[in-house]
Design brief:
Number of domains: 1
Largest sheet: 11 strands, antiparallel
Number of helices: 2
Order of helices and strands: HEEEEEHEEEEEE
Strand content: over 45%
Distance between the termini: 26 Å
Helix content: under 10%
Strand order of the largest sheet: 5-4-3-2-1-11-10-9-8-7-6
Number of strands: 11
Shape: globular
Length: 268
């Protein structure tokens, strides 16, 4: 990159105002999500290595209450997230859930301009062997929540625990996420904040199979960078996660290493 072009980019980036003055704004955007799960297991001296790939397109529409143009942290925004398409494939010898039954699902709710979700709902039903409740919840929390007082260099920590029991299995997870506003940049041609989110998590689970119970324990870490424009539009993210698990079945101990990479980008 020549010096003049580099200098021009520095001028274009500028400096953003305090994050507390920037909120998620009314907009409609289409996003493309791509994630890859690589799972490596070893049993009886034989190693298995395969991937699960998931591609989705979602639409997120945000509307302001009563057509307000100037927003404060206490205002309410209405949102609707629609799962336009989804496709899952695998090179592993596993039976994948039929996520196509979720295509067309829309989740609606209310949120603060900071991204704090106040409530959400969907008419989807928990059937077809798909964990619909979890998918609906993840759709509702599509945006990264930000403290109203955050500015460059601000850090905050969130702790989340889940306990899911369905059919023959149960899973408990605890995740601690530390987030930081690490400055501004130019992303996709727009001035944007960079929000880094780093997580540590633990999980335990059991699954009842014919005449036996399969148990698993694991822990891991995650790291992601999220970009929010100075106009309040979520522009995309990149994230990775690694988990080490131990699966016990019929006296056999199986080590599992699972790595997840994911990207979100605006679909043009």
């Amino acid at each position: 990159m020549n010096a003049l072009r580099y200098f021009a980019l520095l001028l274009a980036a500028g400096t953003l105002p305090a994050l507390g003055q920037i909120h998620y704004a009314p907009t409609t955007q289409h996003y493309r999500l791509h994630s890859t799960v690589r799972r490596i297991t070893e049993q009886n001296g034989e190693k298995s290595d395969g991937t699960i790939t998931n591609d989705q397109v979602v639409t997120m529409a945000i509307q302001a209450s009563h057509g307000k143009s100037a927003l404060t942290d206490k205002d309410t925004l209405h949102f609707a997230v629609s799962l336009d398409s989804t496709n899952m494939s695998s090179t592993l010898a596993v039976q994948l859930p039929d996520v196509s039954v979720m295509q067309g699902t829309t989740v609606t709710g209310d949120m603060r301009p900071t991204g704090e979700v106040l409530n959400f709902r969907s008419d989807t039903k928990a059937t077809d062997g798909v964990d619909r409740e979890s998918i609906v919840a993840s759709m509702a929390h599509f945006l990264v929540p930000l403290p109203a007082s955050a500015t460059n260099g601000t850090n905050w920590t969130d702790t989340a625990s889940t306990n899911v029991s369905k059919d023959s299995y149960s899973i408990q997870t605890t995740t601690i996420t530390t987030s930081s506003v690490v400055g501004d940049t130019t992303y996709g041609g727009q001035k944007a904040w960079r929000v880094r989110r780093q997580s540590v998590f633990k999980m335990t689970g059991t699954q009842k199979q014919t005449n036996q119970v399969v148990s698993s324990v694991g822990d891991g870490t995650g790291d992601g960078m999220y970009y929010i424009s100075s106009h309040g539009v979520y522009l995309g993210s990149t994230a990775s996660q690694k988990m080490n698990m131990t699966v016990k079945s019929a006296g056999t101990v199986i080590p599992v290493v699972q790595t997840v990479t994911s990207t979100v980008e605006i679909a043009h």
